[in-house]
Amino acid sequence: MHVLNDAYCLGKMVSKFYCFATLVVASQALTGYVIPRYVRCNYELSLAAHSPRAERKAMERAKKKKQVEMQGSKLTVESARRKIDALGEVQTRHNSGLPAAEEVERDIRLAEKSGLVLLSAHHNEGIAITRRTFMSIFDTIADGNDKRLLGRFVVAALKTKNFDVAEKAMMKRGVGDGEATAKESSSIIRALIRAGNSDVAEEVLCAELSPPKSPFSQNDDIEVIRERCVCLSSFVLNSLSRNERSEGVHYLGKLGEMGPSAREISLDSCCIPWLKIIQVAGRFESTARKEKEDEGGGGGGGGAQNTVFVSLDALSSFPKIKSKTESNKVYEQVANSLVRRVVFVTGAVSMDGLPAADRGEVCFIGRSNVGKSSLVNMVCNRKALAYTSKTPGKTQQFNYFAVNDKFDREKEIRFGDKFVDQKMDCDSFYLVDLPGFGYAKVPESQRINWENFMGDYFLARRNLRCVFHLVDSRHGLVDEDERIMGVCSQLLDKKRTAYVVVLTKADKNDGKVKGGVLESVRLAMRENFVGDRPIILTSAESKLGRDDIWRYLKVAMQGI
Ligand code: GDP
Asked: Global pTM?
């Protein structure tokens, strides 16, 4: 299996390299350049065309920024002079009269564009004239009452770092008088955040984009909800990139509060850059972990405040991400941020063989072929992790996987090596794959041994945080399942352990549970006194239910 997989990957790499090499040779032969610029450009555009909206917009913004920087770095004396002259003309026009509104808007755009290029080229004379031009434009618009124009001016002045004139324009425009549209307010708020003025940005947010109350009026409220979510995302990204955990958590909480309203108006979650938020949260946690390690403490995310989990909570309050590609990317990022490393550490056949109960633990139990390995692989975003346990001889073991353990520390569990100077990361936990029952033909004595072991395990394993009981969503419960339910209800009740029934392979029935199966599972749960425990519908094929499973894994990750 591994050999086939490797051969497949190698084949893919070779074919990719072959296509690229052909393109290089062909382009060189035709034009004399290695990959002409327009090919690269079209390739980027075609990539953008297939991405969801948020990603496409982010790419466009990055491209624009790069273009400005390129222009700045390649700014010749002649083109700098042309830009300065153009700015001079705008200045004269505004000093000597009162241009029409459209003309002012054009001038603001011109001043912003030229100002950005001159700024990125560190062109002192250019920066000075940009500043004078902005002041002249402000003088002509300060007397008028065009709030929209003032708002546009504020954004341009902030972008070009003309903060004092931007502040004057902000005061003139006023806050919260209801004259600006949600989009205009949103642009100003985001420009203020980028300029490092989060306090004023928050004031504008409260005054102009406060959450509307249900029932929502058609267009206005929908715009406000959308733009508020966009702004809160900017606040989150800004706080986390400045390493401000409590601020980031605060804004993630506010973003999460918008979820129910977003559901009510069926907001397309694509307007919120979830992927970026999870990436930035993951990066933040990794920096925090390193800092903690340098200080001599055990590394690890922020426990209950781990910002990836907080982001996940906010995300799950929103409508599901419509684009499957985007949704897959987001959840893969979640798994990659939360599961840095996962290794098979040991297979236990009795209580003596269990590793020390020094961290949280979750276990997966279900009949053979129910989809246990596939589910474990899905939540950890690994391809063949749990198949390790499928090698002959290991099927009747409790297979232990250490998640987020320090490199090489598994030797401590396997061989008793001591890593005295290494503290454990506080987000480490054990994931336990319990033997599948049902199909395995085992002698009666071994079956009894195994059942006793399972009973002891549930009773005595004090670090067990959650039991995931897997049931095929098409076939429902078998006798062993009901027995497990009974054992769990008796034993888990005494401890603070979660018990979750996971219905697997939902894709085989259009993402639904087969008729009657859900009722029979609920009935059995009630009869076994676990009727109040949750049921999660999953599919390793369509990746359904990943977010729900992660919500319970979180409990294990928060330590013992
Ligand atoms: P285990 O014995 O419980 O670990 O089950 P596996 O994970 O090995 O899965 C058994 C079979 O079911 C394999 O052929 C999987 O490809 C298939 N399978 C597992 N999960 C799903 C699922 O969600 N959807 C579909 N269509 N097939 C699945």
From this structure: 0.78
